[in-house]
């Protein structure tokens, strides 16, 4: 029987494994070490492991390099490709990706399944396997059955992760809530023991009063996709308002401020612009729709199809706007693009609206030059047939139009005077409603944005 008594004894921290060292797992591993635990990060990619083992972050995430340095120096954190090193850990976190399947809406579960299968070779009695990846509802119950067959004395829990890239360290160390999905919603002995182990993992945030919801597997799985669907819906709602604002020359930023003062609505996630991208929101809402279909509830989530469509339309609208200000044709026009990452403080270009717009403009004959403070290397690999520049100055030189597509602080703070003498035409398109139109217009620029008045 699964019970806490039989797990590896720990005095201060626990010994734990983190499988999958991407944006989620690498941060989770370092944060668990920061909380005092002894952590082994495991990944199949030897290059990633070598970087992490040398205390180098394999991707851009504010605060992670310092955290890696600090926690690796304590000797509590190390990384390996060898799954056998998972043996003896009290808790094994599964943090691998669940990307969208090629040509389908559903999530690809092959990484989760192969990680769990490999892990189960080394899991012993009294140990807990904890899923953190975003998965279709029903996955935890399926994996719990696998655990039971392989090691009846072990257990499984689902503990969804809500971290935002760019704020991943603070979101992990000081989460705004913790959710545990355990067997029987902690009504069984096994469920209670799993909860007790997770309470020990998160003793520090729990002591600080972090809200905790203990529930069953399926509710915990749904919490994550429901949260991401709600956030995506909020963004598409304001972007639908932006479409209407464009029709009547109204201002969506003032509209968002005004409705956001109602605290039932709230101002957060009401920034209209190019819409959402990244490795989570787009694929999570699609996988949720696919899963609802499998469950015979396809109508329930048809509104998410509209959320997705509104979001994708914004990218097309941005390209149309660029063509419009370039006198009806992009062919041969020099288009300067500020931003490639799907959002600021990240080098992640997965489903990046900025990069998507840049690629579409290139397809329509535009001569695109792009810059980004963190995502330039990733962008180069993904869209090889556009030009790249290291500085804003080199990007905008000779431009027929400048597009701000990722609202990095340095682009928000850009002074019109700093680039007025470099461009060919003083035209700026603000894809993120991040600039002050009055300042740019006062400096003689044509300023256009999504959902804002023309002049
Ligand atoms: C998201 C969720 O926020 C997080 O809780 C979950 O764990 C993973 O997915 P992330 O993908 O890191 O996190 O980014 P987020 O900050 O949510 O932004 C997603 C996208 O929405 C970005 O492209 C961003 O530019 C866009 N966005 C966000 C808007 O267009 N308008 C807004 O008001 C807010």
Give descriptors for this structure.
2 domains; about 450 residues; alpha/beta; 14 strands; binds uridine-5'-diphosphate-xylopyranose; six-stranded parallel β-sheet; eight-stranded mixed β-sheet; Rossmann fold
Please sum up the structure shown.
The chain is of the alpha/beta class and 455 residues long. It contains 18 helices and 14 strands.
Structure description:
The chain has 455 residues and is an alpha/beta fold. The protein has two domains: 201 residues, Rossmann fold, CATH 3.40.50; 239 residues, NAD(P)-binding Rossmann-like Domain (Rossmann fold). Helices cover 43% and strands 13% of the residues. Strands 3-2-1-4-5-6-7-8 form an eight-stranded mixed β-sheet, with helices on both faces. Strands 11-10-9-12-13-14 form a six-stranded parallel β-sheet. β1, α1 and β2 form a beta-alpha-beta unit. The protein binds uridine-5'-diphosphate-xylopyranose. The site of uridine-5'-diphosphate-xylopyranose has 20 residues, from α9. Uridine-5'-diphosphate-xylopyranose binds next to α9.
If classified by CATH, what would the architecture of the largest domain be? 3-Layer(aba) Sandwich
Q: Could you tell me the mean pLDDT?
A: 96
Dominant shape:
globular
- The CATH superfamily name of the largest domain is NAD(P)-binding Rossmann-like Domain
Number of helices in the DSSP assignment: 18
**Ends apart, CA distance between termini:** 71 Å
Q: Widest sheet: strand order?
A: 3-2-1-4-5-6-7-8
Distinct bound molecules: uridine-5'-diphosphate-xylopyranose
- Low-confidence blocks of residues: 5-11
Number of strands: 14
Strand portion, in percent? 5-15%
The largest pleated sheet is described as: 8 strands, mixed
| Overall tally of structural domains | 2
Radius of gyration: 24 Å
CATH fold category name of the largest domain = Rossmann fold
Structural class: alpha/beta
